[in-house]
Amino acid sequence: MTCEHFCELLPAYCEQRLTSRDTAFVREHMELCANCRADYEMWQKLASLPTREPSPASRSRFEHMLNAYQEGRWEKNGRGQGANWWTAWWRSAFAPPLASALAACLLLVGFIIGEHYSQSHQPSNPQIASMQSEITGLRQLVALSLLEQQSASQRLQGVNYSTQVEHPDPEISSALLHALRFDSSVDVRLAALDALKRYKDDRQVRAGLLSALQDQQSPLVQIALIDLFVEMRERDAKDRLRHIEQDTNVNPAVRQRAQWGISQLG
């Protein structure tokens, strides 16, 4: 049994819905694979959480979150027209089995913990703190996985997940910088740039943003970078902005924005 096959069978195994033959295969694989055994233990922790009926306010927030996903994932070619939006979103956003399992975990655990936290008012509860730490790790894993997918809508969701990691993470900032510099989608590059704002005090990220400016061909991304440099008061950007201002091959609107940026930084 492969790890991918194990991930497909894991939910049914936890619910005791597998045949005796598949159950034996799953147990044998867990004895040999520490990573898959850890995944199973995570599902067990999820099952041990208390079940709570969501309040009307929480249900409303949950529905708004799903609507936000729906609005954000459709691409301009009308990919989702005529189909059930929830099914289409789920299949396209989390096609890889592991990403699907992790995303389901995040959605379920985050919702339950939010309810538990709001009702118990015990922020120091060790069990909640431990689970929140594990959720952060899952979010990071899902974000990095989605950022490597072929679909631009999946990579956009990866950027969105990166912003849900509680504390800035070097691995995520590196992935976002790579997306900003090399992603084929302008929308993904703009989203990555917006997500990188929380890292603007990091020296390596600031240097990466400066390097990204010279790689850009999209006027939208170039102008967004210039605006960010002004917001960060990044004086090291002045030389690069002067180069853009003097380059006659650059879009006139970008050259004008570069001139404005120089004046603001000066």
Describe this structure in words.
There is one protein chain. The chain is mainly α and 266 residues long. It has a domain of 43 residues. The protein is 74% helix and 0% strand. The protein contains 14 helices and no strands. Helix 8 runs parallel beside helix 10 and helix 9 runs antiparallel to helix 10. The longest helix is centred in the middle third of the chain and has 24 residues. It is elongated, with a radius of gyration of 22 Å. About 12% of the residues have low confidence.
- Uncertain stretches: 73-98, 119-124
Estimate the strand proportion: under 5%
CA-based shape: elongated
**What is the element string, with H for helices and E for strands?**
HHHHHHHHHHHHHH
Judged by helices, strands and strand pairing, the structural class is: mainly alpha
Which oligomeric form is depicted? single chain
| Intertermini distance | 63 Å
Mean pLDDT score? 75
Number of helices: 14
Task: Kindly list the characteristics that best describe this protein.
266 residues; mainly alpha; elongated; single chain
Compose a concise summary of this entry:
With 266 residues, the chain is an all-alpha fold. It has helices spanning 3-14, 20-32, 34-48, 56-73, 85-93, 97-120, 126-146, 152-162, 170-182, 186-195, 203-215, 219-232, 238-246, 252-265. It is elongated, with a radius of gyration of 22 Å.
